[in-house]
Every structure is written in structure tokens, then in C-alpha cells.
């Protein structure tokens, strides 16, 4: 059997190599789920060879596994994602207790805790998303995500610059490098690399997850408000015709036929006006997805376009049936 471990390289070098390869695979949008999975396994193995059992690196790689499962493998791996995120939280607690560090006692300007905050934030996001799929209580985890997002913002003087990691200025590069050089093997938690989610995208995901939870609990007004906040945030951040708008317009189309905004607490049958509002949202999704498809001609853009057409046609059919019944 072929041995994939290069005996000429130290565990430290191997760990650095696999972390870099993971980020490169994601940066180049390569469809290498199995390769990334194997590289994460090797990161855990080399980490155990290098660091003591109470070191934060072990929590980092468990966190990466959980996020990998829920973000790349999909909903059917929600249980595995939840398990890895919970294990990571236990390891982080062990690390903080063993080093006598308590995050709630740290100065908000102390940047030494940024990596730990990033690990905990990603864990709670993974837990929230997986618990929604597993029909468990996810709202508590989402509340933690919001709190940690605030903590990360307070731990840096210029979050906006870090979010915009397309900035190529030498000053910006030096600032990031000076911080991350304090830590060994933190590549996967770096906010300027591609494995860790962009914080702006994460904010959109939080709004949408809140909207989904509220919708499933039949809190339609709350759901509508959350999706509208997501829409405004996306429009401000990415522009009114960005692809991020499509899924939110789809959600608003569904929610808008689920309640009467004037009487949200009574049992409701969607009216002609509500269906027309729903059609407006689905039309906007169709217009954006159509433009993006003819520009990109990618598989993802084709799926968005087909889904938009299907949803739009479905509501049109329901509206016509309702009009026929009323006649």
C-alpha cells in the first residue's frame, strides 16, 4: 500500500503543507470534497503529534471538520457537523480552563483572543445550522453567533479592512501578517484566507437562519422582518442585482403568502394581493438569476434560474386557480 506521508518532511512542515492545500482548493473553487476531507484528517493527525492534548489547535481542526460537513457536504451530514462542533467547544473549554483564560474578562482591544473567538463563532454557526436541520433548538446557538460577531468586531480597530481581504495594500498585508505571525498553524482560521467564511456573508446567513427558524415556528412576521433585513444588508454590501439576493427573494415569496401583515395572529388563507406580492418577489429573483446565467453560464446559475422559473410559474398557476374559483 502506498504511503502518502513524506518522511523527509517534519510533522510541522506537513501540517503547514496541508493547511495551505486546503485553502488553495477552496480558492480555486475545485470540487475536491474528498481531498479536503482527507487533508483535514491529516491536519488532526499531525496536530496530535505536535501539540499537547489541551492545546487550542485540536479544537481548531474539529471546528473545521464541523464547518466542512455542514457547508460542503450538505444537510445529510448535519449530525456529524453537530458532533464535531460540540467536541471542538469541549476542547476550547479545556484549553481556556487550563490556561486560565476567560474570554469575558478580556479587554475588548486585546487581539490575542481573535483566533479563539473565530473558532467559537464558527462552532456556534455550525451548531445553529445543523440543529435547524435536525429539528433541535437552534435559536440559542444563533444568539451566541451574534454575540461573538460583536466580540470580534470589538477586538479589532478596523474590521472593515479585514472583511475586504481583496485589499492589496502593503500596509494592510503587514497588519495581518504581524497579527497572525504570533500563532503557529492558524491558516484555516485566518480571516484573510478562503476557508474561514467572510464575515459579511456570515451576517447574511444569520439573518436567513433566523428567518427560517421563525417561519418553521409559524412566526411569519418575524420571519419576514429577518429576510427583509438580509435583503437590505445584501443590497448595501453586494449591490441590488447580486446573486446573494436570489435565495432571499425566494424566501420572501414564500413568506408573503403565509400571513396577513395587518392581522398576523389569525389563521390566514392567502389572498390575491398576497399572491401578487409573492409573484413580485419571484419575478425579481428570476430577473437577477436570468442576467447572471447569461453572464456566467455556470451550473449554479442555471439551477438558480430554473428554481426561479419554477416558483414563479407555481404561484401564477395558484393565482389563476383562485381567480377561476372566485368566478
Automatic annotation (TrEMBL):
InterPro entries: TPR-like_helical_dom_sf, TTC23/TTC23L
Name of this protein: Uncharacterized protein
Natural source organism: Schistosoma margrebowiei
Amino acid at each position: 500500500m502506498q504511503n502518502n506521508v513524506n518522511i523527509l518532511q517534519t510533522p510541522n512542515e506537513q501540517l503547514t503543507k496541508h493547511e495551505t492545500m486546503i485553502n488553495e482548493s477552496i480558492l480555486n473553487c475545485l470540487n475536491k470534497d474528498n481531498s479536503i476531507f482527507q487533508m483535514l484528517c491529516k491536519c488532526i493527525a499531525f496536530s496530535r503529534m505536535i501539540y499537547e492534548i489541551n492545546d487550542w489547535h485540536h479544537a481548531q481542526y474539529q471546528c473545521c471538520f464541523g464547518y466542512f460537513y455542514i457547508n460542503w457536504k450538505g444537510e445529510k451530514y448535519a449530525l456529524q457537523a453537530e458532533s464535531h462542533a460540540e467536541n471542538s467547544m469541549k476542547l476550547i473549554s479545556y484549553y481556556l480552563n487550563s490556561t486560565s483564560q476567560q474570554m469575558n474578562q478580556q479587554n475588548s482591544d486585546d487581539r490575542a483572543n481573535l483566533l479563539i473567538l473565530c473558532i467559537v463563532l464558527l462552532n456556534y454557526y455550525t451548531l445553529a445550522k445543523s440543529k435547524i436541520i435536525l429539528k433541535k433548538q437552534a435559536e440559542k446557538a444563533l444568539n451566541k453567533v451574534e454575540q461573538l460577531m460583536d466580540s470580534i468586531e470589538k477586538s479589532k480597530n478596523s474590521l472593515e479592512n479585514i472583511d475586504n481581504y481583496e485589499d492589496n495594500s502593503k500596509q494592510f498585508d503587514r497588519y495581518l501578517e504581524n497579527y497572525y505571525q504570533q500563532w503557529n498553524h492558524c491558516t484555516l482560521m485566518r480571516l484573510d484566507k478562503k476557508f474561514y467564511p467572510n464575515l459579511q456573508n456570515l451576517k447574511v446567513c444569520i439573518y436567513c437562519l433566523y428567518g427560517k427558524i421563525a417561519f418553521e415556528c409559524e412566526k411569519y412576521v418575524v420571519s419576514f422582518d429577518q429576510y427583509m433585513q438580509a435583503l437590505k444588508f445584501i443590497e448595501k454590501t453586494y449591490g441590488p442585482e447580486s446573486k446573494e439576493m436570489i435565495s432571499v427573494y425566494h424566501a420572501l415569496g414564500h413568506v408573503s403568502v403565509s400571513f396577513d401583515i395587518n392581522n398576523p395572529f389569525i389563521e390566514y388563507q392567502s389572498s390575491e394581493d398576497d399572491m401578487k406580492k409573492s409573484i413580485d418577489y419571484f419575478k425579481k429573483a428570476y430577473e437577477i438569476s436570468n442576467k447572471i446565467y447569461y453572464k456566467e453560464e455556470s451550473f449554479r446559475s442555471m439551477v438558480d434560474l430554473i428554481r426561479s422559473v419554477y416558483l414563479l410559474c407555481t404561484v401564477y398557476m395558484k393565482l389563476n386557480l383562485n381567480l377561476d374559483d372566485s368566478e
